[in-house]
Design a protein that fits this description.
The longest helix has 35 residues, at 175-209. It is globular, with a radius of gyration of 19 Å. It has 210 residues and is mostly helical. 79% of the residues lie in helices and 0% in strands. The protein has helices at residues 5-15, 17-33, 42-52, 62-91, 102-123, 129-139, 144-172, 175-209.
């Protein structure tokens, strides 16, 4: 069952707010750092959860919600980093294969040495990429304190910012019309999320040409 606005609201009404929080936080955790979490709807879920925490609907508490989303987003990234660091690097310590080559590891290490701080923050706003970014950071042995600092920044901006966007939407769009416009709003949010990364790539290419 997809966790759209109506389904998530029905789930919370049936099993209670605590169960709803655990479902939301569990999905955020999985999408932030587990290999299989890349297909989970992080942006959509945060917006929908924010809508349900709005005063007009009020089945969730916004402060409990955003605190938990932030904590579990950061924890998920830490699990992803640890997975990449402890297990991912071993794949590159064997003889080169068509996929796992030592040169790939060196390239990843160089990338995170140069762009790692921005990459950790920007990846938060990019579906699929945010699942694998902490894993790659671990494989590349990015300095943990640096990773953790920017993990906190990215987690705060994403978990709190996107959730509050959903929270504020209800004040701009009547609740009965939200389902009609929600998918379009989420699509716009995802597209806008990619723009900083696209702008950064263009900047990098232009600087190399000069």
């Amino acid at each position: 069952m997809p966790l759209d606005l109506q389904n998530l609201q029905d789930l919370i009404k049936t099993y209670g707010a605590v169960f709803g929080y655990l479902v939301i936080w569990g999905i955020i955790f999985a999408e932030s750092g587990l290999f299989f979490g890349f297909f989970l709807p992080g942006d959509t879920l945060l917006i929908v959860a924010g809508v349900l925490a709005s005063p007009q609907i009020g089945v969730l508490n916004i402060w409990v919600l955003v605190f938990g989303c932030f904590v579990f987003a950061v924890l998920g990234d830490n699990v992803g980093y640890a997975t990449g660091y402890r297990f991912g690097r071993k794949l590159f310590q064997k003889e080169d294969s068509w996929l796992f080559k030592k040169q790939h590891l060196i390239t990843a290490e160089n990338f995170y040495e140069k762009h790692g701080k921005k990459a950790i923050v920007l990846a938060r706003f990019m579906p699929i990429v945010r699942t694998f970014a902490p894993i790659v950071a671990g494989i590349a042995a990015m300095h943990y304190r640096t990773f953790m600092a920017y993990n906190l920044i990215g987690g705060l901006l994403w978990a709190v910012g996107v959730t509050f966007l959903g929270y504020l939407l209800v004040g701009m769009i009547p609740p009965e019309l939200l389902d009609k416009y929600l998918l379009g709003i989420i699509a716009v949010v995802i597209v806008l999320s990619f723009l900083p990364s696209v702008f950064h790539i263009i900047q990098e290419r232009n600087s190399h040409k000069e």
